[in-house]
Design a protein that fits this description.
about 90 residues, mainly beta, 1 helix, 4 strands
Length: about 90
């Protein structure tokens, strides 16, 4: 199976909502990269860099977008999903 690049978004914030709509029935793979740059600002000077710099990337499993009205279906280890979805109690 081949995946094609679609969109690239950047933010200096700790979270974001991409301005896209995922089409139902399509399969997506997400690549998320967190980058720390000691000198640059992604908002005022994108694609500029300076030392020190570090990054970490994450690639998701293929995600299929369900039709509206379809409930959450978790496949795999249910105990792992429960740990992820349940907030910790401190």
């Amino acid at each position: 199976m081949f995946y094609f690049p679609s969109e690239k978004f950047s933010t200096a914030q700790t979270s974001m909502t991409p301005p896209i709509t995922l089409q139902e029935g399509r399969i997506f793979v997400l690549l998320v990269t967190a980058q720390v740059d000691g000198l640059a600002s992604v908002e005022s000077s994108p694609n500029r860099s300076g030392l020190p710099i570090a990054y970490a990337s994450f690639v998701s499993a293929p995600v299929t977008i369900a039709s509206p009205g379809v409930g959450l279906v978790i496949q795999g280890d249910a105990s792992s999903a429960e740990r992820i979805l349940t907030p910790p109690s401190y």
